[in-house]
Request: fold
Amino acid sequence: MMRVKNIFITVFFFLSMIVLGQKPQQKQYIFFLHNKFLEDHSFGEKHPKYGVAEYETILNKLRAQNTVVISEKRKSDTDPSVYAEKVKKQIDSLMKKGIPAGKITVVGTSQGGYIAQYVSYYEKNPQLKFVFIGASFKDDSLEKDKNFRLYGRILSITEKSDDGHVRLSQEQRFIRSGIKDFKEIELNTGLNHGFLFKALNDWIVPTKDWISRK
Reply:
């Protein structure tokens, strides 16, 4: 666990070096927000049904030559709306340093996807990119706020075998948002909600394609 923490210290140090260094606007910046299970469990603990969340492997797969991945393990019972404010401040800081909004992507799996949707709502920036993975369900808590809207360039990835999932395009918050740049993918891995615990190319490849698109 200490090794993973050191990775994040290096990432944030590297980020500050990039921002202060040459042509940071050429980089892609990725905020990765993990699922709820990792809030309450260590990196090595196994979910009784889905096994270990392959967090570090996912981060490594998201990285590319011209990307900076920003992520951390959230505390137990993190409030999604409050944490989204923290991410918003980090994004705003990047943009103040000259990073174009179109070079910033927020990727969230499950609970991380809910946080990413709050970030979208708070930022209200049509150029920011978002990838919501396995974060749309019946009786969705985000549907309680009838004023909640999504903004930005959005990719939604769901899994057909995931219990209770619905397509984001069927959710009222999406319908009333009028998103102009949107893509929706429904996978059929048979892994239920466990598909996002795994570093599967099924969702990582389209996520990276969305990050790199102009």
About this structure: The longest strand covers residues 153-159. The CA atoms of residues 60 and 198 lie 13 Å apart. Confidence is low (pLDDT under 50) at residues 1-22. The chain has seven helices and eight strands.
